[in-house]
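Notebook, student rotation project (T.W.).
Task set for the rotation: take a protein with a known small-molecule partner, predict the structure of the complex, and write up what can be learned from the model alone. Partner molecule chosen: zinc ion. Sequence and SMILES entered below by T.W., checked by me.
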Amino acid sequence: MRLAAILGVVAVACALPSTAGAFRLEGGRWPTRTISYYNKVPAYNWAVDTAAYAWNTSGARVQFVKSSRRDAKVLVGVRWFKVAGDAYVQRMKGRFLGAKVGIRNGQDRYTMTLVVAHELGYVLGLDHETASAQPRTRT
Ligand SMILES: [Zn+2]
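Predicted structure of the complex:
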């Protein structure tokens, strides 16, 4: 990996908002700074858009932008997990191709915003410092 690319990744890590804390780099990155997303759950539009906005204004050098489902790199939708949310990132040789974020129904909009913001951290390639094994799905 070229030095410029490494520095770019580090800049993202250092610019994390405090609410996203305790993440570490897991490896890989998006080929562009602009990451398109689509939310399949109209009821959570406010929460998803607010979480994206939080990242866009965090100082991290990324921009989550809304797009059509067809053009979206990140799909957000309800999944029936016991956990509040989870994220799955599709990678190929350190390059991110796409991601899916699952959220649990029935959370208020503010909790949902925090959950989605947290999951978008995984979408950016971050993970908890305490993570041990390397399962593909993170909560
Ligand atoms: Zn987590």
